[in-house]
Design goal:
Elements (H helix, E strand, L loop, with lengths): L3 E4 L1 H7 L4 H16 L8 E3 L8 E4 L4 E6 L7 E7 H10 L9 E4 L15 H7 L11 E3 L1 E4 H10 L3 H9 L4 E5 H8 L5 H5 L13 H7 L3 E7 L4 E6 L1
Parallel strand pairs: 1-5
Antiparallel strand pairs: 1-8, 2-3, 3-4, 4-5, 6-7, 9-11, 10-11
Helix pairs in contact: 2-5, 5-9
Length: 236
């Protein structure tokens, strides 16, 4: 059975903040659950009250993954964090009546821009006073991802904001300058991105995490102009 999970961008935003020593535990728990969703030994808990349509997976004594079941069978990962914060997020998550593995739009609190970078998640959370009713991001369910691709993306972190931004796009194509991408990721692209066309190749692997960042969320590079420093992504 392929280890796949449907990912909401709020999960990427919360995963961005994971301590490195917790990351491996989170994705081990996800792999185990996707391979065998029976609750025996996995500490899967059905939540109650306003979060009665959600479940949690115990990562360790402190961390929980909040997820939702879908008609496709792939769990929809919504959030990961310390248990009190995770359950608070679950209490304020709005019910989703049409879970589909495609980019759709959900309501957004007016206090949060729909293209809020992942790197600003801490500031938003602090401003919101951990009120996760105000910390939901735009995409409902954006992509079906291999757990290993997701783990690589979160572990590397650098290109995770690019994945989130692409998940939020509603069109069939999007054009970015290299400078746009550097603003999205909050860092400079490596020199090879400006010198070598293969750097933009659609060949994802743990050694090419930049390609994972677009391919794992359903996009690919259509064209890149190194002289103009422009890249166009299209949906796969």
């Amino acid at each position: 059975m392929a280890t796949t999970v449907a990912v909401q961008d709020s999960f990427l935003a919360s995963a961005y903040e994971l301590p490195k020593e917790i990351t491996k535990k989170v994705f081990k728990a996800l792999r185990n659950f996707v391979r065998d969703p029976r609750p025996d030994g996995l500490h899967v808990e059905k939540l109650s009250g306003r979060a009665s349509d959600l479940l949690s997976i115990r990562v360790d004594d402190d961390y929980r993954i909040i997820f939702r079941e879908s008609e496709t069978g792939a769990p929809v990962a919504l959030f990961v964090g310390k248990h009190d914060v995770a359950y608070r997020f679950a209490d304020h998550a709005r019910p989703m009546t049409n879970v589909a593995l495609q980019c759709t739009r959900a309501d957004v609190s007016p206090s949060i821009d729909s293209h809020t970078p992942i790197a600003n998640f801490s500031a938003i959370r602090a401003q919101a006073g951990i009120k996760h009713a105000q910390v939901r991001l735009r995409t409902t369910v954006s992509a079906l991802m291999l757990v290993d691709d997701l783990a690589s993306l979160v572990s590397t972190r650098k290109y995770l904001p690019l994945a989130q931004r692409l998940m939020q796009e509603s069109g069939e194509s999007v054009r970015f300058t290299f400078e746009d991408i550097e603003k999205i990721i909050g860092d400079r692209l490596p020199p090879s991105a400006r010198k070598h066309r293969p750097w933009w190749g659609n060949e994802s692997s743990p050694q090419r995490v930049q390609a994972v960042s677009w391919m794992a969320v359903g996009w690919k590079v259509e064209t890149v102009d190194l002289s103009a420093e422009v890249v166009v992504f299209i949906r796969r």
